[in-house]
Amino acid sequence: MIVPKYNVVIIGLSYFDGMASATRVQNLFQPLIIKDQVNVSNLIYDKDSDGLGKRGIINNVNYDVIGFRKSNPFTVLSFLSNGIKFLKKSKSLSEKNILYNYDQPNLKNILFILYAKFIGYKIILDVIEDYRYYTDYPRFLTAVKMKSSNFLCKHSHY
Questions:
Q1: Which end of the chain is more exposed for a tag (fewer CB within 10 A), N or C?
Q2: DSSP assignment, residue 129?
């Protein structure tokens, strides 16, 4: 029997940070990596990189770190460009491609999700928090993230 092979790109968390969310995702994928049933790559946001280099391989997981600076709005262009390049580079021609998004769709990840879907990835949204019930927003960008997530979830068909 031939074992199907999958190519998974994880976004929304660092696979390597050791927190509960990363451990949960590691427990999901590590047994499959060990059995050579899946190739895993991780697109990591700079704020989640915790000392990792810009790109590399750890425990058979390829990763790239992308980010932008709030002080310079033009860095959003390189953030988007580098993320799209990573998705394109990570796509396999011989395996089934899956984008595993560890969060709701929001302004930070929606273009990556749409692009991945456009080029043939199947999309998994691992929704960990329901932002509909948040009423207190400590920062402006947190409010934008949560409100955009609510809007995108309400108007998407997942």
A1: N
A2: -
